[in-house]
Every structure is written in C-alpha cells, then in structure tokens.
Amino acid sequence: xxxxxxxxxxxxxxxxxxxxxxxxxxxxxxxxxxxxxxxxxxxxxxxxxxxxxxxxxxxxxxxxxxxxxxxxxxxxxxxxxxxxxxxxxxxxxxxxxxxxxxxxxxxxxxxxxxxxxxxxxxxxxxxxxxxxxxxxxxxxxxxxxxxxxxxxxxxxxxxxxxxxxxxxxxxxxxxxxxxxxxxxxxxxxxxxxxxxxxxxxxxxxxxxxxxxxxxxxxxxxxxxxxxxxxxxxxxxxxxxxxxxxxxxxxxxxxxxxxxxxxxxxxxxxxxxxxxxxxxxxxxxxxxxxxxxxxxxxxxxxxxxxxxxxxxxxxxxxxxxxxxxxxxxxxxxxxxxxxxxxxxxxxxxxxxxxxxxxxxxxxxxxx
Length: 366
What we know:
The protein is built from 17 helices and 14 strands. By secondary structure, it is an alpha/beta fold. The chain folds into two domains: 53-144 and 298-353, D-Maltodextrin-Binding Protein, domain 2 (3-Layer(aba) Sandwich); 173-294, D-Maltodextrin-Binding Protein, domain 2 (3-Layer(aba) Sandwich), CATH 3.40.190.
C-alpha cells in the first residue's frame, strides 16, 4: 500500500512539471512582429537588437510635395533597400519599406498624427504644426550658398547663386519676381535701390505654398509682418500651389508675378525653366529677388508619436541608419532631391524659433 501511494505521488509530481513546462512555452513571446512589446520583452531579458533581430513587417515613409511628386518617387526609390540594409545592421529586419508623397504638407502631418505613416520628411513648420503627432528625429544639413545676404539686391548683383563646400544648418526663403511686366517692374525698383511699398506688392499676382510650409508661407508672412505689418492673407491676389514646380510654372507663363520659395529653388528648376516651362532665356536672366527672409532651420526627418514601433531603441536605430545612408554615394543621390547633404541628431528645442513663427501666424488669423 505504501509503495502504491509513493508511486502515485511521484506520478503526480512528474505530470505537474510537464504541465508547467508546457505553460511556459506557450506564454513565451515570439520575436516575429516588430512591435514595442517585442522590444520591451528583449530589454527585460537583457537582449539588444544586435542579439536577436526584431522583424518589422512594413515601414512607411512619407515625403512632402516640395518637388514634383513623380520626381520624388523616382529619386527616393533606392531608399527602400538602403533603409532595410542599414536597419538590419542595427538589428531590425524590415520586410517592406513603403514610400509615398503626400498630396499636401498637411496630409503628411495628419498621417503622422494618426499613426498611418511611420516616418515623415517634413520641414520645420510642418513638424511644429503637428507637434502633437510628430517627434523630430534628425535635422538635415545642406550645402551653403554663395549668397546669404538679407538684401535682395545682393542676390541679383551676384547671380547665379551657387553651392559652396560649407554645410549650413539654415536656409532662407526668397520672394522671386518673374518675367511678367509687373514682376520686372518690381525687380527694377529693388535693383535701383528703391524700397517697395505695400501697394507695389499688393498689385501683383502671387503664388504661395500651403500654410505649414516654412519657406513657402510662414517665413514670408513674418517678413511681410515685419516690413509692412501685413500678412499673406492681406494680399489681394494669391493662389496656393501644390508644389514649387507649380509655382515656377505659374511664374514662367505670367500667371504669377511673384512666388515665394526656398533660396536654392532656382538652381533646382534651372533646366526645367527652358525645357518643360519653355522659356527662351535662363532663369537667372528672367527672375529677380525682391525680398529675403530671416534664416529658417533645416528640414526634419520626424517620426509618428502615435506609432507603437517608435520605441527609444528603434528611434536610435533610425537615427543611425539615416546618418549612415547619407554618407554613402547612393544615399547622397537619394537625399539630394531635397538638397539634403547629411543629417544630425535633433531635439525639439532646436525648433523653438519655428514655434514662435507659428504663434505669430495663429495670431494673424484671429
């Protein structure tokens, strides 16, 4: 009887151990879906991304339409494999990288806020406007320009504007007058040393970008406010372009007398001015600067705050990946579509000046 009882006890203990092992195996997280849960589990177990790669099914990257959307899609196509390869080196295996161009700057900001895109190449103005949904990761560095004066006549006296070997952390927005009769009239006054009046500006036809565009709206508004106590909304004849390409096309055919754009925009559209836009003379001969804004902190690579992928570890991996990509020849070709030449780690306070600009814009709309 004692032997039977002993056998029963041993059998029960063995079955309990087997059940316990089976329960542990069932509850162990599988490392196959790139979520914050996976990363957190690794951290608790003392693992890093280098120890066991995290798999991400899809990473979505969105670009603002500051250039022709088709050109952006074509130029950034190689980024898919470049990003996958660099993230793999950081311990993240990405199955698919998707790239799209937003219909507007706001569309990209809204997608980041909603968490429907993971990464956005957006200007500082868009980042600040959608600060509740976007978190800045990197700031772009660009080649400095041969002109950097706040006097528009200096830009006209020293055409064409050329790139320099120096890297710049800011750029300016320019008020560019075109070949129309009114555009030439405004340029002649500036080049003659005269100060433009509000009536001069208000009598022209303008093309601007959306309200979250730093170079295409926000900083030009600050310039108008500073010099005339007016804003873009006070101008009598204004249209909003969906891209800078559209603005230059309007300037070329005389639909717009004045456009606002980033300082090296004419360099970007120099060839298209005499081909796609069918002008006989060079863009440097037919356009002039009539106003120059203060410096604007460079574009950002930002990430969605409402994205479970964006753990501290993954953000660091993305920073490293983009910085490394920008140092390769193929990567340099990709980011040149935005005139970016490299990236440096950013923090929210870098864009405090932009926040002040946004506050002024809000006050002007009241």
